[in-house]
Amino acid sequence: MQQDHVNAPAGAADQPELTEKAYNELVAIRREKLKTLQEAGSNPYAITSYPQDSFAVPIKQQYEAIQPEEKTGHTVCMAGRMMSKRVMGKASFADLRDATGDIQLYIRRDSVGDEPYAAFKKMDIGDVIGVRGEVFRTKMGEISVFCSEVVLLSKSLLPLPEKFHGLKDQDLRYRQRYVDLIVNPEVKNTFIKRSQIITELRRYLDGKGFLEVDTPILTPFEIGAAARPFLTHHNTLDMDMVLRIETELYLKRLVVGGMDRVYEVGRIFRNEGMDTKHNPEFTTIEVYQAFTDYHGMMDLVEEMMKTVAQKVCGSLQITYQGQPIDLSHWERMTMIEAVKRYSGVDFAAVGTDEEAIALAKQHHVPLPDQPSKGAILAEFFDAFVEEKLIQPTFIYDYPVEISPLAKRKPDDPAFTERFEYFINATEFGNAFSELNDPIDQKGRFERQVAGRKAADPACRAQVDYDYITALEYGLPPTGGLGFGVDRLVMLLTDSASIRDVLLFPTMKPIE
After folding, report:
1. Predicted pLDDT of residue 17
2. Partners of 319 in beta bridges
3. 3-state DSSP assignment of residue 495
4. Burial state string for 129-143 with b = 16 or more CB within 10 A and e = fewer than 16
5. Is 376 helix (H, G, I), strand (E, B) or coil?
6. What is the pTM (predicted TM-score) of this model?
7. Average pLDDT, the chain
8. DSSP 3-state assignment of 127?
């Protein structure tokens, strides 16, 4: 039996069971095999195609009912990567992995011919091959392909790892996702499900009459929002530009222009910290609907999340990292109600900023830079509430101090028509009744930019006065929503880290 698996795909320093010399010898042997093939006029890299007409899982499903040693008379052409190989004299077995899964191959010298069989014996685990043969079930009960042809389509010059699991390999798996996908089928399943989630989100929104659009990724200046952008320079225009930190302002311009229901699946870039929930580039969906408010967006979120979870997971009862989550029930609380429930402090009875400051000191809650009643309420929420929100929960009516783009509540202008929704103590999305008063918006933007420049004199943030101009033409009453796709994928695939649901997460280069 051939056995040239190793325990990691990178340099020999990563091999716990293989010396650098032994690893290099394996690589040298494979390169010598390639050289021999090329010199004999059989360069596998020169092959441009193979007539693949069948796939492993559908074939196994189609012939699930056949008996041991029964032949089907069905000849297939299949292609994929050889994941194992067992040479036994004049007959051999191998496992082929294609886009759908694995299937066993049975190769006999008298079926493929002497020279092709000799060539097969020299092939390595990890080589990409094409096979032609009849589907049958072996005596041991395995649905297999009785090969009449085996062709080397691409030579693998590096040995595949035998074991590619465990914390010691986690960083390597993210860096070499191509190897992770080859040897860990469950990883591929995560990304298949990610694609399904995005498809179902689009299908839901399209079905509600929303139009998907694209807005600029390169923007002319840094806006006043708190997120730090990535900076770049446009050579032809000789101007500094930034990568977008949101899609909101362009999408609301479109609502002004009469596109009443729009959304964008957008790549966002923020030059900030990294942890299990944050990556510098990530995917969001922002949704804007004219003539509705934040209550309408709550209804949309709840229905959309239930629909997507049912389609992708087959149930609204899921488990995330051992915690049962019931997506069939969504609680709704104001921020004041939530803080009262979990801290015992009733901010509805707090009259002044000074009273709020005293409560913060009494309960050891950190004071914000500008300690107003609303800002301190938000600090209480962070300190006492968020970690308790395990089941799906909408928290709404946020203080105006932390909601520069949301419309004020008509009956209480200190608060805004804004909500966030939480699952497993994590914020998943943010929504507003959008502020459409251009005078109020201009004042908030200017105060926000002034506050950032006061805190950081080198800050390059500017007010987006063109957006103010758009509002002056009239933005209809509008509900807006933004949510992170990556966190939703984490939830629905039971993935612990955002890096598990990004094919190529941001990584510091290895020197």
Report:
1. 58
2. 324
3. coil
4. bbbbbbbbbeeeeeb
5. helix
6. 0.91
7. 93
8. coil
